[in-house]
Amino acid sequence: MNYDNPRLILDSSNPPEPGGITWRSPSNIAIIKYWGKYGVQLPQNPSLSLTLAAACTDTRLEYEMRENTGGIELDFFFHQQPNEAFAAKIKTYLESLVPVFPFLEQLKFTIYSGNSFPHSAGIASSASAMSALALALCSLEDLLFGTLKEPEAFDRKASWLARLGSGSACRSIFPHAAVWGESRFVPGSSNEFAVPVGDRLHELFKDFHDDILIVSADEKAVSSRDGHALMEANPYAATRYEQARTRMGTLLDAMQAGDLGTFGKIAEDEALTLHALMMCSNPSYILMQPGTLAIIDRVRAWRAETGHPVYFTLDAGPNVHLLYPGEIVAEVRGFIEEELTEFCENGHYLQDWVGEGPEEL
Ligand code: PMV
User: Fold this and answer.
1) Which residues, judged by CB distance below 6 Å to any ligand atom, belong to the binding site of ligand 1?
2) Where is pLDDT greater, at 279 or 120?
3) Structure confidence by residue, pLDDT tens digits, 174-226
4) Distance 46 CA to ligand 1 centre (A)
5) pTM for the full model?
6) CA of 102 to the centre of ligand 1 (A)
7) In whole angstroms, what is the distance from residue 52 CA to residue 208 CA?
8) Which residues contact 72 (CB under 8 A, 6 or more apart)?
9) Which atom of ligand 1 is nearest to the CA of 34?
């Protein structure tokens, strides 16, 4: 896929009026995890995620024509405050996109971004933030040149752009669920962008919850970027990648049939495998905390006791995601309040669920 397009240049004798575009884009939670990459943000194995709803980023991209050209001109505000660290990252990202969007060097940008969840919640915002920005850039291209009218082409390009900002962000573009990475079980799948698989899921995944138990909101000791890099020398890497490729078929079949037992078994195994890979990296590291393990224990015990289909997964951090169908929301919330919030920082947990994907505001 090559999106380089030297024709996307604005006519300076007929400049566009200043304007703005706003997108709201959600986070996602991987069931089959992406862990290990190569080349330019390409995944070593296919991953599948559920698109969330409550944890999201709103990004407003304002633009106006400028006199000079060359380089990116950007002011960046996070929750109304100038943020130099984020500004530098976004600037580097936009610079890398100049061959794709040459008009980026003809405009001056102001970006206002904010998350629906507290900054200190220990929830990674890169998926929601980078997907929101990628969507805004695609809308801008279409507004200025009328070249992205076709929704499928629009989403694909947005997913491709989001991937370059943060790998897993490419999956947030689509409603309900998405697969990123070549898989023999998903026609049209690619390492360069995600594809929607929501239409292959049983109805129960349209009313499906992911409550996030905040064991710690601290910044993690080893970043995802370093974690991916450590997979290169991980002795189990090849076996792991093959496992993910194979179980994609099993997971999709289970999700289509509404077989929550198989879904949950894979979800939990993926979470523990992700953390096992960290523990046998060189140097090794552990991101789970005592509270993480206590919650996992209680979830398994409660499931055995009640027979309720509630399963856990983990991201690259200590916080625990509880996955369960909408019909048992009252029971699960009661269980969380009674047995799990004691392991959460300040008793804090976030309620989230499978959502309809990003929207332009
Ligand atoms: O997108 P990154 O580079 O932050 O990596 C995300 C990795 C996991 O969250 C652990 C798994 C995934 O597929 O989202």
Assistant:
1) 30, 33-35, 47, 126, 166-168, 224, 228, 274, 315-316
2) 279
3) 999 999 999 999 999 999 999 999 999 999 999 999 999 999 988 888 999 99
4) 12
5) 0.96
6) 29
7) 10
8) 91, 94, 95, 98, 104, 105, 109
9) 13
